Amino acid sequence: MRKLKTEVAVIDPQEPEAEVLRSAAGVLEQGGLVVLPTDTVYGLVCDPRSPAAVDQIYRVKGRRRAMPLALLLHDMAQVSAYVEEIPEAAVRAMQAFWPGALTVVLRARADAAAAVRAKRDTLGFRLPAHVVPRLVAGTVGGALASTSANQSERPAATTASQALEYLDGLVHLIVDGGPATPGQESTVVSFAGDGPRILREGALSPQRLREVLGEVKAK
């Protein structure tokens, strides 16, 4: 794999500098890979409309192609561009926990974001509470294909320096927004079956989910 010159750009997580946002968006629009801070862990992102960029994420991560990527959104309304319908329970979950540490898995349109779906009929969506990935997605004009910023066998990066340790020479840009808190990946819940089911436990507790949704099945 050709070694890249990885740049690190510091950003204010409360009032992000427009120049850094434009730089990140420019890399993504050119088919490059960017690491962004989020409200859970640092994320490795690309433009899901670029199959070559998606392929590069899988190679950089050492991730099995059978494992799909999630989409980071600019706003909740973007979901409707990828799915035929949203179950009522999923709507309640998104209204209660977005922006936040919940990834919602829904049945996708047949032609939606095929490069990231790993041949499945579902897609995972998250609207992060961190403003930086939302603004970058908005600048690019679409959702961002996303996974944690690490190789598959290593813990997810919670700081830009840790992401650099993992991915130096493998990505074009790392945006440093300070430590990611709580430093735990999002909770993944599928609404594509016979009721909400937790696929991965994470920063959002099963108890909080059940307070809003009632019965939630375990993995």
Please describe what this structure looks like:
The protein has 219 residues and is of the alpha/beta class. It has one domain (7-213): Alpha-Beta Complex (DHBP synthase), CATH 3.90.870.10. Helices cover 27% and strands 19% of the residues. The chain is built from six helices and ten strands. It has helices spanning 18-29, 51-61, 88-97, 131-140, 160-167, 206-213; strands at 7-10, 34-36, 43-46, 70-72, 102-107, 122-126, 144-148, 173-176, 187-190, 197-200. A ten-stranded mixed beta sheet has the order 1-8-2-3-7-4-6-5-9-10, with helices on both faces. The mean pLDDT is 96.
Ordered list of secondary-structure elements with their pairings:
Blueprint: E1 7-10, H1 18-29, E2 34-36, E3 43-46, H2 51-61, E4 70-72, H3 88-97, E5 102-107, E6 122-126, H4 131-140, E7 144-148, H5 160-167, E8 173-176, E9 187-190, E10 197-200, H6 206-213
Work out the radius of gyration: 16 Å
Per DSSP, the total helix count is: 6
How many β-strands, per DSSP? 10
* Main sheet specs: 10 strands, mixed
User: What is the CATH class?
Assistant: Alpha Beta
- CATH architecture label: Alpha-Beta Complex
Order of helices and strands: EHEEHEHEEHEHEEEH
